[in-house]
Amino acid sequence: MFLSLPCRFRNSGYLPYTAAMPRLPRRFFARNTVTVARELLGQRLVRILNGQRLAGLITETEAYVGEEDLACHARAGRTPRTQVMYGPPGHAYIYLNYGLHWMLNVVTERNGFPAAVLIRGIQPTQGLEQMRLWRGGQPDKTLTNGPGKVTQALGIDHSLNGIDLCVRRTELFIEAASPVAHILNSPRVGIENVPEPWKSMAWNFKIMTNDNG
DNA sequence: AGCACGATTAACT
DNA sequence: GTTAATCGTGCTC
Length: 213
Prior knowledge:
Shape: globular
Number of helices: 5
Distance between the termini: 22 Å
Strand content: 25-35%
Order of helices and strands: HHEEHEEEHHEEE
Helix content: 10-25%
Radius of gyration: 17 Å
Number of strands: 8
Structural class: alpha+beta
Largest sheet: 8 strands, antiparallel
């Protein structure tokens, strides 16, 4: 179920189609991480970069849930890196993977419980030209279909680690968009060396398309 | 201080 | 299908 969200802009009748929709509030993220991961599909990830708005609908997510989850960075407990995940929900947890790729996560659950949702893919809706530039001329088909590609296309790196996605002036946030009807769920990607049952938990969610469904 | 590893990607064959 | 690129992190000595 989707939360009912503030709708004060919805019925004004004369807004241009570019008008910003309401942002997902902190209470959206302050819930069960698997639920948040599933419900983030179809919502609009927005990056404001040098005053320009880049946006895309979220197409793939993954849940990482607490110290018990041996695929989650919080398995090591509270460290300088995992600090943000222990903080309040609705903040960005961003880290470097393979020495090359920045991964964007959104912190979930209550303050003090370490969990987050990894954004693994988006479908660009605004700022496509700028995304192509950031991606070095890669074909549109592979522009943002992976976690490292999403951050590269949106110009996201460690400088945004820990920022609040739920306040007024922020350069990264998520807007309420269209609910998604058909969702595919499967085990999480890239955790081959993680023990069971965590390796097999079906906490990867993606929108069903002609390609995958 | 040193080491092995990783929530990946792109360019190979 | 295979592999190199590349470095922060957490663990061990």
